[in-house]
Amino acid sequence: MQNELKWPYRSEISEYEQISADVLVLGGGIAGCMAAIAAARKGQKVVLVEKGGTKRSGAGGSGCDHWESATTNPCSGVSPEELVNAMLDDNDGYNNAISHYIECREGWDRMLDIEQMGGKIRDTEDEFIGADFRDEATKLLFAYDYKNRFTLRIWGTTFKPAMEKELKRLGVTILDRVMVTSLLTKDGKNGTECIGATGLHTRTGKFYVLSGKANIIAMSRPARVWLFSAAYPGLCEFRPLQCIGDGHAMGWRVGAEFNMMEKSVRAEFSAAGRSYPPYSAGNNHNTWYPASLVDANSREIPYADRDGNILPDVKSRFYPAKGQHYFLKGGNIEQAKYDYEGPETLPYAQLKEMGYKLPFYADLTNLPELERKAIWGLMVGQEGKTNVPVLKNYTDAGFDPTKHVLQCYGVGWTSAEFLPQERQLFGLPGGFMNDWKLQTNLPGLFVAGDSLFSSNCYGHAAATGYYAGRHAADYASSKEIIVPPHIPQVEAEKQRVYAPLHLQTQDSVSWKELNEAISKTMQNYCSEIKCDELLNSGIEQLSRFERDIIPRTSAANPHELMRLLEVFDILTVAQIILQASLARKQNCKKLEFFRSDEDDQKQKPFIVIRHDGEKVIQKEVSLDYAGDIKMNYEKFNAEYVEEIA
Q1: DSSP assignment, residue 7?
Q2: Percentage of residues in the chain with pLDDT exceeding 70?
Q3: Are residues 535 and 602 in the same domain?
Q4: Same domain, 464 and 439
Q5: Which of 408, 437, 456 represents a domain boundary (last residue)?
Q6: What pLDDT is recorded for position 75?
Q7: What is the side-by-side strand order in the sheet with 616-621?
Q8: 49 pLDDT more than 70
Q9: Is there a domain that residue 13 lies in?
Q10: What's the pTM?
């Protein structure tokens, strides 16, 4: 008989620790690290709480190959105002003008910060001298639009370790392996000032009571809501397994407002038996831009500009068309309108008529050497989760980009055709509603990065994180005392968190079983086409899970308990999505929201929802609620503007 494996960590279950801070940062990804750094630089006592290990945690912890929207870098040909207005126009106003202006206005500042911390943003070894995408004076490398130069190629694998080193230098207290489980509010009441949080150590089971004068949620966007594989849970979504939207769930429970949560897109990334890991299959988008494509007969597939003109050579793929100011690749504008499209291959239907034969292959052999090296080396090497799984493993297997082509599985860059009911909160998804200080409707609760509605990528996380940290520090400095936690609220959370550890029966339910049930419910009742009857059935089903299944769930150790608490949060997020979908009664293409029972053709503004503890409250907010973006930014950031002038 095999010996039963013992849990390798000392049990601290039911033990607790109280920690106080001026600024409490919840989440240690890119946004959280930058928030903590900003607050610490303003002289505040900062505690950062991270579910994983801060050095490599979060969606961007393993790397990033490009930084979008650095419109104030010395080579840029696009202003912050131009780019943000394009983002708003291309989404018919359904976008976060505040957070994206912060991204465009301060993105370059944050790159310089990270460089000072030890991150690499320039070609300091002169590997790419003479390349069209290199600026010789600054040694910066650019991607996509070589004329306007506002998207930079970077060595993103160096960024997170540099941030952690800076956190330690500044004296920030880092609580690694601690999962935040709930927010604490003044007097324990819904909708009041946020005064802290609770947490659980994912190895020892210790319970934490965390108090902060100001609190910042810098956690991930939700995931595993529609897509889950019990066999391959770590490959279910584009982002890491632990990034599932905990912050959204705990914010909802205490009355925070959310915007655009009805938006979901047909799945693009899932390697759980449905596709291949991102960037591992041949394509000509994003990280692989602008690889040539060839068909099964080695016939090169033509590139066309926005006007449909065939481009004569590789170099022309990097420059705007005649009469076009600039173009975007890499995810900046999610559903780009005609004026902002960049070079692209012709549609598959047209290629088929022209005699091109599947399968297609990405062909780097005919690219200039430095362009090829920039894709297969710099970008594939630096993008998150590609350095070892793609670059190293493929190279070890014999792939040589100077000789070989790589198959495109399918005809798009996602390498799979997903079903309409397989949805994701991808692109510019819903999240916390924010004001010009990145504060929520709850005083003392700030948000950054993927917690924000209409969040974006790496640069957006870094810029909004630092911005939230500045404003949270100012808020904390205005508070004389730390409000003590409401003991009944703490005790109720402690009981909720530990309950699954005390249930070990034959018919108990695991975290995987519950996650799969939630995902199937969302596929059935919140698919591409929605109606009240389906949505209400979904709400009823999830309520049954909450009432009948959660009390039957069990966990054998603190790690399993963390996974189970994540799924409880996924269930809450699913309920938010269903409620937001009920609230919007008309179709909206830019939100990819469609109803079979549409009752109002009139274009509606943002629909913001919250839970007051008993029922869902909704309100309409104007799409232009941010006002004049340049004027309001400078109004709320006068000190910072003067500082960097």
Answers
A1: P
A2: 96
A3: yes
A4: yes
A5: 408
A6: 98
A7: 431-432, 258-259, 606-611, 616-621
A8: yes
A9: no
A10: 0.96
Place of tokens 């705990």: 250
pLDDT given for residue 35 in this prediction: 98
Kindly state the average pLDDT of the residues 629-636. 98
DSSP annotation of 545 reads I
DSSP string, 367-395: S-HHHHHIIIIIIHHHSTTTIIIIIIHHH
Record the tokens describing residue 53, joined without a space: 């290990």
> Can you give the CATH number for the domain in which 260 is found?
3.50.50.60
User: Tens of pLDDT along 494-503?
Assistant: 999 999 997 7
* DSSP 8-state code for residue 321: P
Between 601 and 281, name the one with better pLDDT: 281
The answer on 366 and 446 residing in a single domain is: no
- Residue 333 and residue 86 in contact, taking contact as beta carbons nearer than 8 Å: yes
pLDDT tier at 1, thresholds 50, 70, 90:
very low
At position 152, the amino acid (one-letter code) is: L
Nearest Cα to 199, choosing from 183, 214, 212? 183
629 plus 484 within the same structural domain: yes
Number of domains in the chain: 2
In-domain check, residue 506: yes
**What is the rounded average pLDDT of the residues 569-587?**
97
Q: What is the pLDDT of residues 197-213, one digit of tens each?
A: 999 999 999 999 999 99
Q: Which domain holds residue 319?
A: 286-408
| Residues 197, 261: Cα–Cα separation, whole Å | 24
Question: In angstroms, rounded to a whole number, what is the distance separating the alpha carbons of residues 190 and 256?
Answer: 9
CA angle 16/20/25 to nearest 5° reads 100
Residues 148 and 74: their CA atoms lie apart, in Å, by 11
Asked if 206 and 324 sit in the same domain, the reply is: no
Cα–Cα nearest to 166, from 202, 114, 206, 121: 114
In a domain, 119, yes or no: no
Same domain, residue pair 266 and 240 = yes
CA nearest 518: which of 493, 543, 499?
A: 543
Distances (CA, A) of 457 to 116, 186, 256, 469: 21, 33, 23, 18
Does residue 354 sit in the same domain as residue 471? no
524 and 564 belong to one structural domain: yes
